[in-house]
Amino acid sequence: MKKIVRIIGITMIALGVVGFSFLAFKQWIPAIACLGVFAIGIIFGIAGIKRVREEERMVVEFFGKFYEVKSPGPRWICPLIMRIRAIVSIWEQPIKLFTEKPSIDFAEGGTAVLVEPTVWVRVKGTEKNLTTRDEKEISENTKTMIYEVDDWRVAIREDIENALRDCLNDLKVDEALEEKDWWKKVKEVYPELENRIAALGLKVTKVLISDFQWSKEVVETRRKIFEERRSIEIAEHSAEAAKHRARQKALESGGMHAEIKKLLTEEPYNYSPEDAEKVAADYVKYFRGTETGRIIDWRVSEGGGGLPLEIAKIATAIEAAKEIFKPKAQETKEKKEKKEKKGTKKQPKKDQPEEDED
What we know:
Strand content: 15-25%
Low-confidence stretches: 287-315, 349-358
CATH class of the largest domain: Alpha Beta
Number of strands: 13
Oligomer: single chain
Helix content: 55-70%
Largest sheet: 3 strands, antiparallel
CATH architecture of the largest domain: 2-Layer Sandwich
Number of helices: 10
Radius of gyration: 51 Å
Structural class: alpha+beta
Distance between the termini: 162 Å
């Protein structure tokens, strides 16, 4: 074919030269004939100039038979005897799925209409960089996708729709909401699908579902589930907060023990550390909840829910301790004063003999 094109080109140039030669010698009829054919050839040649973009490949036929796949750049096809069968975009491109918007049934109940389901495909070999692409491989795959099937878009759409519908029918509603990589899910169910698409010279890059338009029954059920989960979360949070408050109050009870022990070892009580530890422990072992009125042992409650919501303030406990141990302190003080008085009375007796001797 290229030889024929060259011959035609050379012939047109020759006719142009001969025509101008006849014109120079005023041979009008031969000049007009040659130049007329030459002009027709020029118009014919200009009409066959085509442009192929970088992301495109042009499939050309010669008298109805595949001739070649034109690569990017300025290209020429012979009018009348050649025709463009297809111009194929080789980059990644989307194909809309479920254009009729059917209702999909899910496992264990629930239906939904898919929102903007799309499969993205590209010609095999184009996933490589421009500098490392194999143009021969791309041309071969482009030829395959045009001649192996009547409409490659319809073929891809039908295969992906059937596989995706089966996958969705086997999923529960929650599983469908959590799924992100639908092409991976489809391949798990139909591993042979990728090879079948590759046989067409194509490669699927991803399958996307923007959202689900759920039926009223599903929406209502999910609303109830959300409310129940929310209630559980609130209850768990409240229980954790109550546990924290109880732990803090238990610590406050422990602080009460330390304060009372400290109080008993100081003036005016002057208890020994051992006695103060014992008395303080007995005193704070039981205390009364201000709201419940129950007697609670804080040391065996482990800071849990057995504690009341509020504990008597430490200041109140200390004042109560003062009242309890006040008689004991008074008795101690009285004994001390008596000892001091006895000491003052005995002092003059020791000095009396010295006065007699004087």
